[in-house]
Amino acid sequence: MHYRGWEVVQVLSGIAYDCDVLVIGGGIVGLSTAYAITRGAPGTRVVVLEKEAGPARHQTGRNSGVIHSGIYYRPGSLKARYAVRGAAEMVKFCAEYGIAHAVTGKLIVATERSELPRLHGLVQRGRENGIPVRELGGAQIAEYEPEVVGLAAIHVGTTGVCDFVGVARQLAESSGAEIRYGAEVRRIDRRPELGVAVQTVAGDVVRARVLVNCAGLHCDEIARLTGDEPGMRIVPFRGEYYSLARPELVRGLVYPVPDPAFPFLGVHLTRGIDGGVHIGPNAVPALAREGYDWGTVRPRELGATLAWPGSWQIARRHWRYGTGELRRSVSRRAFTTAVRRLLPAVTPDDLVPSAAGVRAQAVLRDGTLVDDFLIREGARAVHVLNAPSPAATASLPIGREVARRALETLRSA
Fold first, then answer.
1. CA-CA distances (angstroms) from residue 167 to 101, 159, 375?
2. Contact of 180 with 48, CB cutoff 8 Å
3. From the CB of residue 87, how many other CB atoms can be counted at a distance below 10 Å?
4. pLDDT tens across 260-277, in order?
5. Strand 195-200 and strand 374-378: pairing?
6. Over 60: is that where the pLDDT of 17 sits?
7. Which residues of 392-406 are buried (b: 16+ CB within 10 A; e: fewer)?
8. How is residue 369 annotated by DSSP?
9. Which end of the chain, C or N, has fewer beta carbons within 10 A?
10. What's the rounded mean pLDDT across residues 63-91?
11. Edge-to-edge strands of the sheet including 233-239?
12. Exposed e or buried b for every residue in 224-251, given b needs 16+ CB within 10 A?
């Protein structure tokens, strides 16, 4: 018996599987899934393959570190339900394991009259999602942030910050799963009647009954290697950050009113658990799946993005928005102008370049930006196909849902 030339050892009961569930991806969602599987079904053998030398090297470790309240998301959506639930669970998890965190609350500030209806809409959405919200007049903003100006604001008390990389490490340790770092996937051979065999770049082969795809920036590629057409493509958007040289200007977290046409929250101010203040991100096209700067270009990945019809639809519909984001990417002065809408005291000299992140945004063929978390199943496989922000906040509920599906697949295999 062979998997396309890979020898499979047979024993009396069938194939000698290396594990019951194989998780591809060692970010916070993949590790939360492994944790949930072993907690929900003790004795289940789980292996996690992560191509980097450690956990949480991409989306998990390159974001603002914010525990989102869930106020932005459509009531009833997975994002709304999992973010609200996940925020409370994340604070509890951090407290239990001694991981740095703080519940700081945040302000969402309207700086133009045209934003006031959207701000009021967020109040209503927050109430529908069960989130306590305090409405503020312009003069009341100074109670929370003396240097911030606006026409009106809302205060969301359940927002916080934490060390998501520390959370990912703890999930890996507590899961009891076998975590294999430096294990980049090269080939996948799935046989619905038998299972899945995965070969790494190093030549190792792992045989599993069920595969779980939590590959983030590469999740659509993993789905296709498995033999499933995901119906979407990851179009990477880079988010660039600055550190504030005068962190005393900001006490906590300050956000603009987001544009409802986009899944991005706009340039915001975040005092992290280390006491520093991050400013950003913007949202510009990345020239590689892991394109953390303009100098990182991978022609094959860029070509695949440009070949996807949805990429051109996005460009056609949103070129004005994109032009502004590109301007802020190449001009610190333009970025400063955007920040000064909230924080007038800031100057270009206050902005110190910081590490960027890349958002793994799923885009449909017609150019629709997938707005909710997207989880799909195939034969002996579960694929997490859209899990950008607030996935870190929602990682514990997401992990349980993916684990539930994986275990159901395992039982029926």
1. 10, 17, 22
2. yes
3. 26
4. 766 677 889 999 999 999
5. unpaired
6. yes
7. bbbbbbbbbbbbbbb
8. B
9. N
10. 96
11. 284-285, 233-239, 357-363
12. ebbebebebbbbbbbbbbbbbeebebbb
Name the nearest CA neighbour of 308 among 363, 260, 257, 258. Answer: 363
Question: What's the CA gap between 26 and 31, in Å, rounded?
Answer: 6
Cis ω for the linkage preceding 390 (within 30 of 0): yes
Burial grade of 139 (CB within 10 A; 0-12, 13-18, 19 or more)? exposed
pLDDT tens digit string along 276-307? 999 999 999 999 999 999 999 999 999 999 99
- Is residue 208 within 8 Å of residue 21, measured between CB atoms? yes
Instruction: List C-alpha distances in Å: 134 to 71, 114, 126.
Output: 12, 20, 10
pTM for this one? 0.94
Q: Which two tokens stand for residue 189?
A: 């051979």
Token pair, residue 401, equals 């849902």
Are 410 and 403 in contact, with CB atoms under 8 Å apart? no
